[in-house]
């Protein structure tokens, strides 16, 4: 069922003196054994850009947690496995009205953070840092992930994009800003939207692709800005191409089927 149109585009109030924006913001830094990337990337994240920097760690054993705490960052270590479990646990700790997802593994450029928030301030509910918009490119893509990203966005726009609306060029990227209540309004926080497919494919997936699909499908106020993706710094890629890709494509097809069955 589509969300009510009135649930989006609501102005945020209560400007914070530090950032000067009409909303509070939280930078959610996703980590799992990323100490090398943290040491290079986080010094370039200026604390005055946001109201809260919150490290969400998946149980690192390489010193990531210890390094972050030594530097004075607020750290939460998830108890249950999987992205969605991590979000469910950490969401009550987020003090911002707007959340910026950020990975400190080198793939996310810190200077993009204020640009994302600038776009939210224009009135958008979701702003994506696209690797494929206006000349931006990814140095982390290989042949398989590059093709997978192209296929997913092509099929997604074909099946779900309302007539006359803009194409979404990067529905899978994590670097994005969104209003804190958007996942709940789009229903991507509901376990039943994931659990059956996850059991079938023996994996756990993120809610970001489904969020993008429903944002496109329901015509909420979303936007993209171009942002390059540099290569990874240290650590290991966590991507499970076949399992995650299969779940996301099946979710996409299910969203299309629901549109036509209702």
For the record, the count of structural domains works out to: 1
Counted beta strands: 7
* Assigned CATH class: Alpha Beta
Order of helices and strands: EHEHEHEHEHEHHHEH
Global morphology: globular
Biggest sheet: strand arrangement: 3-2-1-4-6-5-7
Number of alpha- plus pi-helical segments: 9
What percentage of residues falls in helices of 4 or more residues?
Answer: 25-40%
CATH architecture, by name, is Alpha-Beta Complex
Low-pLDDT sequence parts: 1-17
Output the structural class: alpha/beta
How much of the sequence lies in strands comes to 5-15%
Distance between the termini: 8 Å
Rounded to the nearest angstrom, the radius of gyration is 18 Å
Describe the structure.
With 262 residues, the protein is α/β, with parallel strands linked by helices. Helix 8 runs parallel beside helix 9 (241-261). It has helices spanning 35-41, 64-70, 83-90, 112-121, 143-160, 182-185, 195-201, 208-218, 241-261, and strands at 25-31, 52-57, 74-77, 98-102, 126-130, 176-179, 222-226. Strand 2, helix 2 and strand 3 form a beta-alpha-beta unit. The protein has a single domain (13-261), classed as Spore Coat Polysaccharide Biosynthesis Protein SpsA, Chain A (Alpha-Beta Complex). It is 35% helix and 14% strand. A seven-stranded mixed β-sheet has the order 3-2-1-4-6-5-7, with helices on one face.
């Amino acid at each position: 069922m589509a969300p009510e149109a009135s649930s989006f585009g609501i102005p945020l109030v209560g400007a914070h003196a530090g950032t000067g924006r009409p909303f509070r913001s939280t930078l959610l830094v996703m980590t799992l054994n990323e100490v090398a990337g943290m040491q290079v990337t986080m010094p370039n994240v200026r604390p005055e850009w946001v109201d809260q920097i919150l490290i969400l760690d998946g149980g690192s054993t390489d010193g990531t947690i210890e390094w972050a705490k030594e530097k004075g960052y607020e750290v939460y270590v998830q108890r249950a496995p999987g992205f969605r479990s991590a979000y469910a646990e950490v969401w009550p700790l987020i003090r911002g009205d707007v959340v910026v997802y950020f990975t400190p593994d080198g793939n996310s450029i810190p200077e993009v953070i204020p640009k994302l928030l600038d776009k939210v301030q224009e009135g958008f509910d979701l702003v994506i840092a696209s690797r494929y918009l206006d000349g931006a490119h990814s140095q982390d893509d290989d042949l398989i992930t590059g093709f997978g990203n192209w296929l997913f966005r092509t099929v997604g726009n074909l099946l779900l994009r309302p007539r006359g609306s803009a194409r979404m060029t990067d529905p899978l990227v994590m670097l994005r800003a969104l209003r804190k209540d958007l996942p709940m309004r789009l229903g991507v926080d509901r376990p039943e939207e994931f659990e059956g497919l996850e059991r079938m494919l023996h994996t756990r997936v993120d809610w970001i692709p489904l969020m993008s699909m429903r944002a496109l499908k329901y015509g909420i106020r979303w936007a993209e800005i171009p942002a390059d993706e540099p290569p990874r710094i240290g650590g290991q890629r966590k991507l499970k191409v076949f399992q995650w890709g299969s779940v996301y494509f099946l979710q996409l097809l299910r969203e299309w089927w629901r549109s036509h069955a209702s």
